[in-house]
Design goal:
Layout lengths: L1 H15 L7 E4 L2 E3 L17 E4 L4 E4 L5 H14 L4 E5 L5 H4 L2 H5 L4 E5 H16 L21 E3 L2 E5 L4 E5 L11 E4 L4 E9 L11 H12 L5 E6 L5 H24 L3 H11 L9 H9 L5
Parallel strand pairs: 4-5, 5-6, 6-7, 11-12
Antiparallel strand pairs: 1-2, 2-3, 3-4, 8-9, 9-10, 10-11
The protein binds zinc ion.
Length: 298
């Protein structure tokens, strides 16, 4: 009896404290968080972040939401490589992908983003940090966090040679943000899509350009790619790019159609939930996206 009670106790403990996921090896020299289940704000809204390890050093893709989160990421990186961290790419500069920049800048990394997303961070970064309560975060979650701007920006394309590993940074069109970029490893047919792709996770649309975004998804579907690390969600494929495009077009068309007849947010959200594909995480994005783009500002 005692044994059963102990086992029960242990299994409850395991349920209550899921182990923090380490970086997953997704290919030779490539590691990433993927399929994070804890989508709470302090856990970077389950944003994925990863690394490419070359002979000469490491390139980091995105830095999570805070100094605390970036330090956890850095500690996980050090479990797989002790090479110098040479570059950080911000796939875009939303808080959950770029507010950990300072931790990596102090490691000596050059922070890189598209010019438009550096400008976005300049416009809203400090105010976002100051009003972090609006994002469900407490001051203590953000302790030591500072806004660090990308030192190097580009507009179309950059190629980085890490020593035996070639990494392409590509911007197709304005999409999730004006300057959202992908990180492409052609030899591995592998792509970090940033928030251009949300898989099994309702996307954040507030800063999005739906027409450019669908064009970007078309361009990604035409690339020589087999595996894709989305901005949020599990390791993905082109099928998920297709579903992302369908989701965007459906949300946009339905939200427009429904808000012609009604400005009642709850009623419109209820209708949207009936037609949108089911996704496991972040259903709260539906009302958020509706209010940010489709309802008249109150
Ligand atoms: Zn984002």
């Amino acid at each position: 009896m005692k044994k059963i009670a102990l086992l029960l106790h242990l299994s409850l403990l395991l349920l209550a404290t899921p182990a923090l996921a380490d970086l997953t090896k997704v290919a030779d020299s490539v590691y990433s968080y993927v399929g994070v289940k804890d989508a709470t704000p302090a856990n970077s809204f389950a944003a994925n972040a990863g690394i490419v390890v070359g002979r000469d050093g490491i390139l980091v893709v995105d830095t999570l939401i805070s100094a605390k989160e970036a330090k956890r990421f850095l500690a996980d990186i050090r479990k797989v490589s002790d090479k110098p961290i040479r570059y950080v790419v911000n796939t875009h500069t939303h808080l959950d992908h770029a507010f950990g920049n300072g931790v990596f800048a102090r490691e000596g990394a050059v922070i890189i983003s598209h010019a438009a997303d550096r400008a976005l961070l300049e416009r809203v970064g400090e105010a976002t940090l100051k009003n972090i309560g609006n994002y469900g975060l407490k001051p203590e979650d953000m302790a030591g966090t500072e806004i660090v701007y990308p030192a190097l920006t580009f507009t179309d394309r950059v190629t980085i040679d890490l020593g035996g590993e070639t990494v392409e940074l590509i911007r197709v069109a304005p999409s999730h943000t004006e300057g959202s970029v992908i990180v492409y490893l052609p030899a591995k047919k592998l792509l970090f899509a940033g928030d251009i792709l949300f898989t099994d996770f309702h996307p954040y649309l507030a800063d999005g350009d739906i027409a450019g975004w669908t064009r970007t998804l078309d361009a990604l579907m035409a690339m020589d790619v087999e595996r894709i690390i989305p901005g949020h969600g599990p390791l993905s494929t082109k099928k998920d790019l297709r579903e992302m495009k369908e989701y965007l077009l459906l949300f946009d068309a339905k939200a427009r159609e429904l808000t012609v007849g009604s400005q009642d947010a709850d009623a419109v959200v209820a209708e949207l939930k009936k037609v949108l594909p089911k996704r496991s995480l972040a259903e709260w994005m539906i009302p958020f996206n509706l209010k940010s783009r489709y309802l008249q500002k109150q």
